[in-house]
Amino acid sequence: MENSKFVRKEAETNSFKDYLNLVRNNIIPIVLITLTGLLVSIIYAIKAPNIYKSTTILKVSKPQGSILNSPLIPDMQDFGSDRFVANEIEILKSLMVREKVAKSLTDEYNKSSYKKGFYLILNKDYGKDPEVTSPIKKESSICEVLGKSVSIEQKRGLDIVEITIESPSPAEAALIVNLYAQAYRNINLQISREQLTTVKDFLFEQRKEMQESLRKAEETLKSYQQAGGIVALDEQAKALIDQLSKFDADKNAAKIDLIVSNKNLAHYKDELKKQDPKLADYLESFVTEPYLKALQEQIAKLEIQKAVALADKETVVSKNVIADYDSKIKTLKDQVEQKKSVYKAGILASSPDEVKALTQKIIEEEIRNQSAKSTSQELSSMVGAYEKKFNSLPSATIEFARKERERAAIEKLYLLVEEKYQEAQINEQSQPGNVLIVDNARIPEKPSKPNRPLIVVIGFVLGLCMGVGFAFLRNYFDNTVKTPEDIEKKNINVLAWIPQIEGLGVNGNKDFEFIVAKKPDAIPSEAFRALRTRVQFSKFDKDAIRTLLVTSSAPQEGKTTVTTNLAGSFAQAGKKTIIIDCDLRKPRLHNVFKTNRYPGFTDYVFGQVTFDEIIRESEVNNLHYVTAGTIPPNPSEILGSSQLEDFIKKLKETYDIILLDSPPIIAVTDSEILSRLVDASMLVVSANTTELDLMEKSVELLTHERNTFIGVILNNFSYRSGYGSYYKYYYYYSRPNNGEKGSKKLTKV
Question: Which of 348, 372, 520, 742 is most buried, with most CB under 10 Å away?
Fold first, then answer.
């Protein structure tokens, strides 16, 4: 049993020839499906509109900071971070950018005199649907179109971004990507200048306030003078007022610097807390470190002392003294920078790339903030000391001196604020942003799509693949016998394969059913002669086979045709042959010979006719036949009766070969009964009709202790599909070979 299974498993392995035969057997549907795919692709390629592609290229780099401050260390900058560029791409895809582009597109359409140069933003139903009142879509709809049509991608490993769009209108494609790049550049510039703009606006307000305060101070002083309170100040008083107003202005300027620094620091810290809250808290402790704070206070004191020395006109200050101040201040600043560098190296070593730049800004701003605090405190102390001197002036001049001091202090402060405001304006305008339009989109001259030759090739290939796939799918779900190999794979002997008889069954035509008599030189006739030979030699003993049973798995598989032609082949070989129609349910032998069904076999069994009356001659010498006769109500009992055995014994006295045409073995038990009475039994299966399971079941029923089953006959098999060589050889050997000119050629049927 295990051996049998093993052999069957080996036999069921498909070979390349099997696949090739499968393709050949399905060549017509494969060709039709392939041609259909090719035709559809050609039609699509012809009708597909031209699509134009336009691209603009941007270079996106990290912010570099103010050109006036440049607080960042160059070697710590990381231009081209993929993550940074990825964040910018998300901004490019945002609704904010698309809304600006949609508005710009609407304005461009309204200004344009060539409305046909647009496609994507047009309302296709305008003029057709009365509810559509605008030739172009709403801005919200244009935003949706842009979201689907615009492609934004980063070039791998580079800080280059490509904005691409495809449109049937080349001018529209170029316009959209250029507007997209410009809108993003403006938004990026606005974001980059946001902090600088905030500082500039604050200084502008301070400038206005200082200007108004100066105007009021000047009017107050002028009114005091006009009221007769003019006092001539001596040189000492003038110098004191000049020094005091300068320090007063410096103190107020330091306070403004501190306010600006606080604003910047708050902004930077908010940004850092969004990315790393723990790092923001850690940086807070940096500037409060006692050592660093002490250095800042010492620098502030030395700078104030230097300023006082320079402002004292009564004392001649040597260059050596100033140089000594500068040297001390530089030494302290170097210590601050050294401390700052060590701190940066430690804190930035483990920081992500996108946090490093922001962290450095905070460190620089913290240093400036602490410096501004120390300077403000020292100036407040200095102003307090000078106020004591001021209050010691004569009472007659002190009121005038106070008003002059106020005016001079406000004037100096106004000049300082004006200078910082102008600096902030320059700083804002000089901030270039971090987006550079490398290449503006140009109107494409040639379409990028469709690639018509490629579409046709793809259509052909897809059609071919679908055709072959259909063949394999059809074969997978088709459980019918197709070739002799299908039978052999089931470990079943194949006696012969009978080709289709051309013209048989067309419009009910049965003229060529008895093909060995009608066309003895035809290909099917030669196949029946081959079957005759194999039947004769299927057993060793020459006279071992005299009675033959021919059955099938199901109706309409050609068992009667096979029985008749096989009998004719035996008769042509000189064997006295007779056919008995044992299909007592749906007999058909009388139709083949075009005679009446009765009297026949059943009439003889019931004693209604004599033996000689049921034996009929055919048009072929040595061939006789017995029709079924009257159809009885109990066919199985008759076929299993002793009368049939006696009838066969009687026929053996006269005939060499006796063939029994029986009903399908799956449908009724008649054939199974008859198989035990004959010398050999054969099963007829029809190519592309008989199911493999039915064939196996039929063989199982015919295989019993009598061992009469000799093999399967494959009927209606096409030689041309994978068996062309057989067809060619049959044709060669079956045509006349008398050497005469004009000999009649083989008629293919």
Answer: 372
